[in-house]
Amino acid sequence: MRLLCEEINIANPISQFWLEDSGEHAINHLMISTSCKEIYRQVIEQAKLASKFAYCPYSKYPVGAAVITFDGQIYTGCNVENCGYTQTIHAEQTAMTKAISEGALKRALAAGLSQLEFIEAIAVYAPKGSDSWPCCNCRQSLNEFGLEMNVIGEDGSGSIVSKKLSELIPHAFPMESVLAAVFGADWQKAAYQGVSTVLTSEKKKTGGKRRKLVEAAKEASTMAYCPYSDYPVGAAILTFDDQIYTGCNVENCGYTQTIHAEQTALAKAVSEGALQRACDAGLSQFEFIKSIAVYAPKGAKPWPSCNGRQALNEFGLQMQVIGENSKGTIMCKKLKELIPYPFPMKEVLASIHRASPKT
Ligand SMILES: [Zn+2]
Predict the structure, then answer these.
(1) What is the torsional sign of CA 197, 198, 200, 206?
(2) 294 near 217, Cβ under 8 Å?
(3) Is the pLDDT of residue 97 over 60?
(4) Are strands 244-248 and 234-239 parallel, antiparallel or unpaired?
(5) Can you give the pLDDT at residue 3?
(6) Alpha carbons 126 and 82: distance in angstroms, whole number
(7) For the chain, what are the domain ranges?
(8) Mean pLDDT of 264-293
C-alpha cells in the first residue's frame, strides 16, 4: 500500500490499520485490492455526488466533500446555507461532523489512535470552481483533527491533486496548546474520552415517535466532541418521510467554527438527500422536517441555542422541537414558539429572486 501511494506522490499513505482490518466493512476489501490512487478517486467521486444535494440559494456555489477515516469509511457532505449566513455549514464541516456523530472518532480512540489521526483524507469538489482547496473556515475546522490528513481533489484536467493540511495552513493556530491549556499535558487522552460518562439519563426503550426521537438524540450526544465546553448535546431530526438523522456538537479551538448538534443533524439530513426527496415529492423546503429532538445530558431544559434555532429557521417554523425535562417528561413546542418575531428568511430568499432554490 505504501509503495502504491508513493507512486502518485501522496505523502501520507493510507494507514496500516486498514490492512489489518478483518474486513468488517465491505469497502475495506476493495481498498486492500486497489491502489491508493483508486481509493482517492472513489472518495472524490463521493464528494461529487454529495455536491448535488447542496442547499446554496445565496451563493449559488454548490460544494461537496467526502472524508475517508482511518478505517476506510467514507462520510459525505454538502454545504447548507442559511439566511443568517453565520449559521451556514460548509461541505467539509458536514462531512467531518457526520463522521464524528457516526462514531468515527470514538472508533479511532478505541483503536489506540489520537484525534489527530482519525481522518486519512478529505476530498473537496466544487462544480463551479477550478480549484478544490477548502476555504479558510474549513481549514480551521479540520485543524482540530490533525495537520497530517490529506486534502484531495481534481485539477482542471481531472488529475488527482493532494496536499497535506499542514501545507494549506502554514503557521497553524496551535490547537494542541489550547487543549493542553484546558486539560494539561495529557490532553490527548482527556479531550474526547469522558464524554460518554456524562450521559446520566437511562435509555428508555418504550414510547411513541417523540420518545424514539429523544432517545436517538441521547445516543447522538455520546459522540459529542466538546473539550472546551464539556457540554455534550445530541440532536435527531425526523423528516417528512420518517427518516431519522442524528448529530452532536463538534467544537473547535477557533470557537467560531464550532458546529452545534442541531446543525450537524440538519446538514446530515440535507446532504443525504432528504430535502431533495421532499422537493421531488412536491413539498417545499419548509415542510421537509417534521420534528427535531434535542438532548443535553447536563442540561435541565431541552430547547436549542439561538444559533441552532436560526439554523432551523431556514426550513420552516412549523416543525416541532422536542425534548425531555429533568424529570424525564417529553416536552414539545413548535419552532415558531421558540422564535417570536423571526428573521424573515422568505423575504431574503425572495430578494434574491429565487423563491425556492430546489424547485
Ligand atoms: Zn469552507
Answers:
(1) negative
(2) yes
(3) yes
(4) antiparallel
(5) 28
(6) 19
(7) 2-20+35-168, 206-351
(8) 98
**Active-site residue (options: 6, 7, 24, 92):** 92
Q: How far is the CA of 81 from the centre of ligand 1 (A)?
A: 11
Lowest mean pLDDT among 231-245, 262-276, 341-355: 341-355
Q: Do domains 2-20+35-168 and 206-351 have the same CATH topology?
A: yes
Which residue, 190, 296, 306, is CA-closest to 248? 296
Ligand 1 centroid – CA 136 distance (Å)? 6
Q: Tell the residue number behind the cell numbers 435527531, with chain if given.
A: 236
The cell for 9 is: 506522490
Q: Evaluate whether 306 touches 239 at the Cβ level (below 8 Å).
A: no
Q: Look at residue 200 and tell me whether its pLDDT is greater than 80.
A: no
Of 213, 191, 158, nearest in space to 324 by CA: 213
Average pLDDT over residues 339-357: 82
d(CA 151, CA 163): 5
Q: Ligand 1 mean position to 213 CA, how many Å?
A: 30
CA of 188 to the centre of ligand 1 (A): 26
Q: Closest Cα to residue 83, out of 263, 337, 267, 344? A: 344
- 153 CA from centroid of ligand 1 (Å): 14
Enumerate residues with CB within 5 Å of ligand 1 (an ion): 90, 135, 137-138
Confidence (pLDDT) at 205: 62
Bridge partner list, 235: 247, 294
Q: Which fold has domain 206-351?
A: Cytidine Deaminase; domain 2 (3.40.140)
Q: Is pLDDT of 194 > 80?
A: no
**7 annotated active-site:** no
- Determine the Cα angle at 250 with ends 296 and 163, to 5°: 170
If 0-12 CB within 10 Å is exposed, 13-18 middle and 19+ buried, where does residue 286 land? middle
Q: pLDDT band at 354, cuts 50/70/90? A: low
Domain 2-20+35-168 class in CATH: alpha beta
Whether the CB-CB separation of 40 and 121 falls below 8 Å is answered with: yes
Contact 59, 53 (CB under 8 A): no
Which grid coordinates belong to 127? 462544480
Greater confidence (16 vs 310) lies with 310
CA of 129 to the centre of ligand 1 (A): 13
